[in-house]
Amino acid sequence: MLILNSVDVRQALPMPLAVEAMKQAFAAFSDGNALVPPRIQLPIAPHSGICLIMPSFVDGNTPAEQALAVKVASLFDGNQARGLARIQAAVVVLEPNTGRPIAMLDGAMLTAIRTAAASAAATDLLARRDSRTVALFGAGVQAITHLFAMCAVRPIEKIFVCGRTPSKVAALISEFSGRPAIPAQLIAADSPRQALADADIVCCTTTSKTPVFDDADLKPGVHINAVGSYTPEAFEVPPETVRRALVVVDSRNAAWEEAGDLIQPLMAGLIGREHVHAELGELVLGRKPGRENELQITLFKSVGLAMQDAVAARVALESAARLKLGQEVAW
């Protein structure tokens, strides 16, 4: 069995490669070629944690084009006090035609990359071509991968970073300014309004349970990626923004089960279920149109799907073989 740690996964799955992998994954999902059962949630109450089990199979013409994997992701609130990341995860890859375990990948890094790559795929399909400025809400792992993701699909010149903890924002800017894959200038925003003043693209990557910006501060024609919330009670985007946006989701069924950004305005009577314009895969396949004009606000809402992990892992393993990454262990 091949083991890929977080460094291996990052090397094996550079953002441009991950973006194309996510387009393939979402196309397969919307075309009915991906089996994605509902994720199993296992509360671990004594330790303030939860374990999520996410299996998926993506079909293809040959076993080499198929993907079969199971991700186990744990979120434990007390980890920070222990010096550990809140999210711990592993992805086990199985041989599609035999079920034989063939690899295990660091799931936290894979999740961070594939989530940002999905936002990049949506941005590539929905954002204005002249987009140059990004407002990034959050300063955690997802914020970091979104820096790379946005710069992979648009010639970004400025990224305004807005977070609740100024020291984390400063640390992010210090560490990632000047990276070859991030040619944009990174700027600490004093407020959400400042971050949004010139923003063509907005990325929400926080765990906030209430909107992180005001609808009135958005400029016309902006594209929004909302990936931070994944429960019915939490929402990062104002309901007023959702009501006037062209809304694209990763999965209609998953969105109405878990996406508070949509469920909250639905419950408030601001939108109906028909307000979801398309799944991202339908845009990739050309079955639904994207942006209608330069002034339209577009919104991609993602709660994350297991087939993203399966396809990302398959692509990462192909890349790792070429680059001779990872460690083989007897199994």
In short:
The protein has 331 residues and is α/β, with parallel strands linked by helices. It has helices at residues 6-12, 15-30, 107-126, 141-153, 166-176, 192-196, 239-244, 252-258, 260-267, 280-284, 306-323, and strands spanning 2-4, 34-35, 40-44, 49-58, 67-76, 87-94, 101-106, 133-137, 158-162, 185-188, 201-204, 223-226, 246-249, 276-279, 298-301, 327-328. A hairpin with a 6-residue loop joins strand 6 and strand 7.
Overall structural class, as computed from helix and strand content, comes to alpha/beta
**Cα distance, first to last residue?**
6 Å
The parts where pLDDT drops under 50 for at least 5 residues are none
Radius of gyration: 19 Å
Structure in words:
This protein is an alpha/beta fold and 331 residues long. Helix content is 35%, strand content 24%. The protein has 11 helices and 16 strands. It has helices spanning 6-12, 15-30, 107-126, 141-153, 166-176, 192-196, 239-244, 252-258, 260-267, 280-284, 306-323, and strands spanning 2-4, 34-35, 40-44, 49-58, 67-76, 87-94, 101-106, 133-137, 158-162, 185-188, 201-204, 223-226, 246-249, 276-279, 298-301, 327-328. The strands form 2 sheets. Strands 1, 2, 3, 4, 5, 6, 7 and 16 form an 8-stranded mixed beta sheet that branches. An 8-stranded parallel beta sheet has the order 10-9-8-11-12-15-13-14. Helix 3 runs parallel beside helix 4 (141-153).
